[in-house]
């Protein structure tokens, strides 16, 4: 049984090893010393993963699924310790849809990866031709992840990869390596040796993984800019890629919605993980007739949400994970204010206190061309844009070059679905936002990336299609 201290010790850099101090974004206190691995470490990890892969592939789906189910049990055994470390490193509170929720999702997605069916597909069988489509293991998969949901997104990448008979080398964000190292330490208590290795390094290690000749596929979640760099880096080895990139999700409230009834769900759609979520609601479009009512209801929900240090059970909102992200949010809100937008709540951080705390901020009377609308804020600041006609709302929602998620809010499901069909996004939720589900494929449109995760489609993306014709 792991304690918090034994878990932390298991991921701490060895004496003499290159390391990086990780600071708690809520307090500025040191959390731990993460190892800083090198490109030589990466080469060794890829070689070990390649050596372990044939036996893992040969073990078959049933054995691999059983191992993943045991790995999910291991996560549950150490859930509280993992959640505490995640909270201290990432900043997200234990409580609310945050650290405990994230660790719970890791177990749920591992089980889904273990139990999702994937049968060979008979494409043609007409008496003359028989063609069957199979999905074979790729080999070694590289998993490169961000700092916002570091454990959960790593599981999204590695669960299906392992299930499909691949071995995996993980490159966590340099902002949140301890969480990922700890998660993988726990998973490796149950998984056969050599399947899963973490190389905790910086961009140089990410780049080396994306160019590595021994790696057949990169699962990448992060910014659109890095996604484009990975496309370039992977070109010479023609790697397969799944790219889950940045988003700037629009939500459209239809004129028949009830502002009071939807305010809580709108709030969490935007402010889950203190706004540091890829598929969070990042721009809200509200008709003239409901504008003031939606602003008032959202303001009263936002004002009641406690923000503070993650280990305090009272809090449901936390700090920004890093100072650079704090500066982005502050710059965008200041620019909106300077342009004449109305700050309904927030927008005025208390700079006398430690930590990257930026208050939950709602911004009204803002133009659709304002940078707080057009750039991904990735933090606790939501612009609320007024519209007159639904055509205008759809045009504004589709105006950007990203399209991860979107949402439509109305009690009239047919009307909402008709609007949804016209939105350029990989997922459109109705009366909710960001509700990912391990059974349902998830991926981006436009520059939010390509490839699908989750469900049977997600498994297929971790295999090489092979047709046996005859
Ligand atoms: P980032 O792109 O800065 O970093 C992500 C990872 O890529 C890190 O591990 C980093 O070290 C690595 N990296 C950096 N440069 C690299 C290179 N040239 N080659 C290979 N690897 C490299 O992203 P971030 O700031 O950690 O995450 C925030 C972004 O991620 C936001 O835009 C957010 O919308 C997006 N995101 C998307 C999803 C999704 O599912 N679509 C989920 C979470 C986050």
Q: Explain this structure to me?
A:
The protein is of the alpha/beta class and 470 residues long. The protein folds into 2 domains: 4-245 and 448-469, Aldehyde Dehydrogenase, Chain A, domain 1, CATH 3.40.605; 249-430, Aldehyde Dehydrogenase, Chain A, domain 2 (3-Layer(aba) Sandwich). The chain has 15 helices and 20 strands. The strands form 5 sheets. The protein has a 7-stranded mixed beta sheet with strand order 12-13-14-11-10-16-17, sandwiched between helices. The chain is globular and about 60 Å long. Nicotinamide-adenine-dinucleotide is lined by residues 144-148, 153, 171, 173-174, 202-203, 206-207, 210, 221-223, 226, 229-230, 233, 244-247, 278, 376, 378, 404, 444, 449. Keywords: Oxidoreductase. This is Aldehyde dehydrogenase family protein. The active site is at 244. Belongs to the aldehyde dehydrogenase family.
- Spell out which ligands are present: nicotinamide-adenine-dinucleotide
Mean pLDDT reading: 97
What is the CATH-assigned architecture of the largest domain? 3-Layer(aba) Sandwich
Query: Helix count?
Result: 15
Number of domains: 2
What is the SS-derived class?
alpha/beta
Overall helicity = 40-55%
Principal-axis shape equals globular
Largest sheet, in brief, is: 7 strands, mixed
CATH class placement of the largest domain: Alpha Beta
Q: How many strands appear in the DSSP assignment?
A: 20
Rg value: 22 Å
**How far apart are the termini?**
53 Å
Strand arrangement within the widest β-sheet reads: 12-13-14-11-10-16-17
CATH homology superfamily name of the largest domain: Aldehyde Dehydrogenase, Chain A, domain 1
Query: How much of the sequence is in beta strands?
Result: 15-25%
Give unreliable regions as ranges. Answer: none
**CATH topology category name of the largest domain:** Aldehyde Dehydrogenase, Chain A, domain 1
Pfam family, one: Aldedh
Protein name: Aldehyde dehydrogenase family protein
InterPro entries: Ald_DH/histidinol_DH, Ald_DH_C, Ald_DH_CS_CYS, Ald_DH_CS_GLU, Ald_DH_N, Aldehyde_DH_dom, LUC3-like
Domain Aldehyde dehydrogenase: 20-461
């Amino acid at each position: 049984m792991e304690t918090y201290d034994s878990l932390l010790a298991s991921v701490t850099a060895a004496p003499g090893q290159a390391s990086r101090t990780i600071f708690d974004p809520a307090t500025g206190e040191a959390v731990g010393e993460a190892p800083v691995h090198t490109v030589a470490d990466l080469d060794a990890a890829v070689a070990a993963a390649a050596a372990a892969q044939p036996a893992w592939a040969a073990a078959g789906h049933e054995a691999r699924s059983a191992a993943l189910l045991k790995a999910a049990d291991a996560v549950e055994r150490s859930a509280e310790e993992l959640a505490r470390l995640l909270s201290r490193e990432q900043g997200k509170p234990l409580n609310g849809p945050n650290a405990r929720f994230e660790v719970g999702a890791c177990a749920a997605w591992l089980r889904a990866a273990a139990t999702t069916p994937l049968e060979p597909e008979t494409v043609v069988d007409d008496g003359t031709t028989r063609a069957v489509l199979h999905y074979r293991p790729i080999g070694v998969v590289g998993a490169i992840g961000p700092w916002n949901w570091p454990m959960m997104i790593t599981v999204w990448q590695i669960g299906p990869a392992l299930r499909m008979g691949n071995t995996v080398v993980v490159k966590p964000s340099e902002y949140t390596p301890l969480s990922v190292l700890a998660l993988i330490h726990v998973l490796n208590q149950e998984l056969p040796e050599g399947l899963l290795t973490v190389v905790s390094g910086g961009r140089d290690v990410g780049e080396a993984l994306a160019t590595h000749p021994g790696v057949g596929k990169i699962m990448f979640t992060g910014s659109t800019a890095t996604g484009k760099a990975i496309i370039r880096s992977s070109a010479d080895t023609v790697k397969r890629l799944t790219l889950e990139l940045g988003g700037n999700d629009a939500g459209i409230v239809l004129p028949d919605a009830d502002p009071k009834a939807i305010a809580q769900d709108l709030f969490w759609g935007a402010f889950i993980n203190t706004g540091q979520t890829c598929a969070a609601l990042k721009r809200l479009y509200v008709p003239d007739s409901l504008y003031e009512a939606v602003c008032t209801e959202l303001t009263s929900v936002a004002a009641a949400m406690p923000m503070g240090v993650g280990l305090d059970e009272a809090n449901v909102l936390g700090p920004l994970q890093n100072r650079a992200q704090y500066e982005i949010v502050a710059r965008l809100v200041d620019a909106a204010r300077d342009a004449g937008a109305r700050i309904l709540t927030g927008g005025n951080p208390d700079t006398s206190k430690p930590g990257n705390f930026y208050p939950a901020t709602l911004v009204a009377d803002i133009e659709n061309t304002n940078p707080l609308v057009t750039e991904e804020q990735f933090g606790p600041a939501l612009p609320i844009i007024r519209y007159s006609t639904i055509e205008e709302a759809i045009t504004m929602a589709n105006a950007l070059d990203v399209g991860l998620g979107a949402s439509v809010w109305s009690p009239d499901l047919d009307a909402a679905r008709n609007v949804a069909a016209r939105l350029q996004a990989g997922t459109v939720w109705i009366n909710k936002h960001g509700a990912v589900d391990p059974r349902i494929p998830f991926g981006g449109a436009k520059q939010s990336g390509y490839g699908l995760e989750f469900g049977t489609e997600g498994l297929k993306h971790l295999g090489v299609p092979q047709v046996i014709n005859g």
